[in-house]
Fold this protein.
Amino acid sequence: MKQPTTPPRWAYKLLTWFHPDDTLEEVEGDLDEMYQYWYQREGKTRATIRYVIDVISVLPPFVRKRHKKNAYPHPIFSLSMFRNYFKIALRNLLKQKAYSLFNLLGLSLGITCGLLLTLHIKEELSYEKNIPNHNRIFRVANTEWSKSSPPLAGEMIKFFPEIKSITRFASLGTQVVNTEDDKQGESVGFFADSTVVEVFDLQPVLGNPVKALAEPSAIIITRSMAEKYFGSKDPIGQKLTFENKEELWVRAVIEDRTGNTHLKFDYLASMPTFYNYVSTDWLTNKGWMFGWTYVLLNHPEDVHKLEARMKDFYLSFYAGDKKEEILKAAESARLQPITDIHLKSNLIQEVGPNSSILYVYIFIAVEVLVLIIACVNFINLFTTQALKRMKEVGVRKVLGARKVQLVIQFLGESFLLTCLSGTIAIVLYLIALPFYNHISGRQITGWEIIQPDNLLIVAGMVLFVGLLSGLFPAFFISNFEPVSSLKANKTPRSSAQFLRKGLIVFQFVVASFLIIATVLIYQQMYLFNNKQLGFDKEQIVVAKLYGKFKEKLILNPEVIQNELLKNPNVVTIGKATNRIGDDASVESVVPSPQEPDKEYPSFRVLRIDENYLNAMSIPLKAGRNFSREFSDSASFIINEKAAKILGLKDPIGATITNTTMNIQGKVVGVVKDFHFVSLHNQIEPLLLEYRPWWTGNMFIKIKPGNVPATLDFLKNTIQKIAPGTLFKYGFLDDHVAGLYKKENTMSTLLKLFSILAIVISCLGLFGLAAHTAEIRTKEIGIRKILGATLSNLVKIFSQEFILLVLIGNIIAWPLAWYAVNRWLQEFTYRIDISWDVFVLSAVVTLCIALVTIGYHCIKTALSNPVNSLRTE
Amino acid sequence: MRRTYLGELEEMILLMVAILDGEAYGVTVSQQLEQHTGRQLTFGTVHNTLIRLEEKGFVASHLGGATTERGGRRKRFFTLTALGSRALQDVQELRNQLWQMVPPHALQVNGL
């Protein structure tokens, strides 16, 4: 008989792999027969071609599936099956109490974190979004300055037809306000043009705010301020006294502004009021950065037109100046979208401290990481648990369950768990909220969670976690061969093992990343809080000077200071224009005679009295302090940096000029460089002028011990000297710490979330160790019988986990180094990253891992081998 | 009035099953089809059509016994069901009726 010829193997393989099982046999046979037939009639090549074509014609999607005759119906959604699934899920949950608890706890913690962080991020992104025209409002600024000059607004609106309206704000800051009925309080406000009503869409409640803001000595107040000072009385026409001297009349009431904004105010004083303070030539000064200018455009896209024509505008606005300088200025001009200001603007003299988009990114990253860790945990635990149910899957399959049904069953279980976790998470969130608000300095209320978009976030997270963690086990388990899953105890397949190990490594990458980042950020914060600043910030009370008290203090400084110094706990009283870290005046200072063609950077100027340097313990390097014995109004003290910049070898006695204020004088002293701004910035050249009558802040150095009594004394004495004065004070060190508020907040939050991440990882590890212990009980029993010691067993048991944790650490190191290094670039003064932090993270994670698995480890190793070996 | 629509290819294959009378399975059907009509169809077309005919109830199938030829793989034999033969007869009858209605001259022009 002739040897039967065979069709090409690959095509045959293709057929066996992809053709539906129930018709495979017959089709194989048919095609084989056809091949023989063609082979004999037309030769090998033709037969092969036809065979291949025919094979392809019976592969999906071309082939039609044969449906089994008399197959049972497979309802996917049947109530009784659902009831059964639910029952099984519940039984499994209760049977494995520890697992379920870890699963739920880990996931709930993760979702709680996610919720808090989402709210935080949402809040950060919500700035200015409540202003109806927010996409059409831009702030006129340049690359350095957030402020602009007084005449700019008027000229811009004439030049650009795209501008619908333009308004200016000048700072008034926080002011002490008195009513005629002697109600007293503090309120925040600005001077503003009447166009502010249109640009910011202020809603009038009483009176006409547009008209009011065009009148001198007029203010408009918000509804809540009206209630605070006047209660139910009609506020219109009432007099308010600011800082005990400026009297303004309420002309209109506006609706409170809702939502977050960088421009917070309780009242707006009219711009004509501001004109009273300054001479008219200042108002046409194009170089005076007096306030913030906001434009409202007709159309958001018009901003490009404005930017394109900025050069032309500058040429006409600054006509007469040097052309290169104008072009340079035009180059730096910016129109900032108002919505960018909170997160993306960090210019000189911002309205208030802004946040940074970097922190939003960090928080998003942390949120995603924590959520992923929680999911990974859940996947791990859910899979291990589900693997134990191979028998159940086998039985279900034998009884005719289809794969879809099994997938739905397991997905449903994971959703049941995630929904439960979601509910627990909401409870945890409500518990955590007060602490969170305390740390982050926010005012989020618990009810915010009920807002539909927030509920949507929770639902989204539950869906995300449920799908992510349910899909894998669902498909993995439903694929089991019923026969093999019914046969005895089969250990889980190696692919699942590998996946689980990978996930553990991943978790520890995240955990050690967070540990390293937290420690390094903490070190940086420590640097901020403890760096030698060049002055002594401890035990200094800073009080704001205003009104009658300020007048009296300027008239008879001696008398009042002596009165205060009667208390032995008061050491020195100094005065200065600014607190440390406040934006000091920026002025131009040059040596006289000036070197031709040399440019000098601008100086910061601080006006002080003769006691300021003492009170702040700022050491003099050379020369003398200001003194009442000399007529020092034309004397200067400079810092070392200033001396260097001015090129003064022997600064004492040198003549310099403050060209901004047009004062010439001699340098009488040099102080050591001290950090009069936050550590984000380099020390700048500083000029100290003797102007006790200009100062706005009193610096009272007090002795430690019995601080409350000293404060009471100060308060009472000031009250005696100037009745009706609100003694508003703060401690300098608190104020300095406040300069790093956003970093401090971030550091605290990060600390919290990294602890959570570690806890969640450990929950996972704990569950897994329990699982491994269970699987290896018998092995350990045998080893024990054969003479293994406890330490042997612990070693065998834990070395696998230790390896995983170490691998996780090693992967995390470069990532953490890179990320923290990027963050540190933000700061002028920063820590060096030292290697011991990395070792620390390894040691900490290892210890935590060992403690976590140690329990199971020792429990298993100590158990009587007889028990474990007898069961079968 | 036919109850089920029978496509042209389905009709052909159904006829082949009838012709083969118990000997119809994938190979014989496609070979017969090719012999008698000259149409070379891919095997998948024949296979799918047979399955579809079975779903419609025109044919029934059973697996034959294992033989040593074709590596011991069983054949699936197709036989005409009552419904199938009825369907074929219906088609035939309908055709006859329609033929009767064609006026002789209309055919002659085309036929010659």
Remarks:
- Chain A has a mean pLDDT of 84.
- The longest strand of chain A covers residues 163-179.
